[in-house]
Write a structure and sequence with these properties.
It contains 9 helices and 13 strands. It is of the alpha/beta class. It is globular, with a radius of gyration of 19 Å.
């Protein structure tokens, strides 16, 4: 039997600590104007290293707890947790298992998913597929990253881009199979992994990048190549989704886009002809939160009443790997 996957609740979380471009300009060779012109970012939320027990785990847990509250169900009803992140405190156990404890699940399956900025959309797609088969009935999907912990704040090329944040969604089995994901795409081009990566040891650094001043263990990015990839991929996956579903721009209520760079999103809006009111942008407030990005945007729209039952919504993301993911969801 085929089921549908209904969005039962949405939530998000971000650290209280706000770091503005002016704050960064005090220690970096940059300015508020320089950052805004190139990225659209005005400020970002970053975990406070002086606050005990504040970390990626806490952000992810908080987002899922808010999604559960929005859904009106206890954590004990979850039978699966998918946690997308590249910044979990531990690789064993997964943060998904620790989140399961925190929200009070019983024996729910739980795993971490690593697809960088595409992680939340990957998680939505996987959850929909598992619910439709009848294997799971209530799934918590979380996208969360604390990239401030892996940014080298002694240089400006990468550190100005990222913030910490989380978005979460509770999906429940529905008897109506038309509810949920009506189109999905996931992909990766492993030949381009060197364009966005976090090496831990010197031997993991490609020859061409040996003179990079960014510290080991911190994020490195070839901004020019990632920009070209993102602009092209954004356009292609959106056009492909509309072609395969038969839906036009007018049929989709919101395009929920990964917040990597305002210039990338603006380029997609112009080239595809998307109405600006259908493309919510919050990178100015949060920066690029990687796996947290799409969930944060979705929660903004959900709480504002801009996503309603019966709407078609498209989610699009791309990130390290280089990965990409998209879906069209009937809410």
């Amino acid at each position: 039997m085929t089921y549908g996957a209904r969005i039962a609740g949405v939530g998000s979380a971000a650290p209280a600590r706000v770091v503005t471009n002016y704050d960064l300009a005090e220690t970096l060779d940059t300015s508020h104007e320089w950052i805004v012109q190139r990225t659209g970012i005005h400020r970002r939320h970053l975990l406070d290293p002086e606050t005990e027990n504040e970390g990626e785990l806490g952000l992810a847990t908080g987002a899922l707890q808010r999604a559960l509250e929005d859904a009106g169900i206890p954590g004990s009803e979850l039978d699966l947790i998918i946690h997308a992140s590249v910044t979990s405190e531990m690789s064993c156990p997964s943060n998904a298992c620790r989140i399961a404890e925190a929200v009070g699940t019983n024996t729910a399956a739980a795993f971490d998913l690593l697809a960088a900025c595409s992680g939340f959309v990957y998680g939505m797609n996987i959850a929909d597929s598992l619910i439709r088969t009848g294997r799971f009935s209530t799934v918590g999907v979380i996208g969360c990253d604390a990239l401030g912990n892996v940014s080298d704040f002694t240089e400006r090329t990468v550190s100005i881009l990222f913030g910490d944040g989380a978005g979460a969604m509770v999906l429940r089995r529905d008897e109506d199979p038309s509810i949920g994901c009506v189109h999905q795409e996931m992909g990766a081009d492993g030949t381009k992994w060197r364009m966005l990566y976090m090496p831990r040891r010197e031997r993991e650094v490609p020859e061409f990048d040996r003179d990079n001043p960014i510290k080991l263990g911190c994020l490195r990015m070839n901004g020019r190549e990632v920009f070209k990839f993102a602009v092209t991929k954004f356009r292609k996956v959106i056009e492909r989704a509309m072609a395969e579903t038969g839906l036009g721009v007018d049929d989709i209520s919101q395009f929920v886009c990964h917040q990597s760079n305002a210039r990338i999103i603006d380029s997609a809006i112009q080239k595809i002809g998307l109405p600006p009111e259908k493309v919510h942008i919050n990178i100015n407030e949060y920066g690029n939160t990687s796996a947290g990005s799409v969930g944060l945007v979705f929660d903004d729209l959900w709480r504002a009443g801009k996503i309603k039952r019966g709407d078609h919504v498209m989610c699009v993301a791309f990130g390290g790997g280089l990965t990409w993911a998209a879906n069209v969801w009937k809410v």
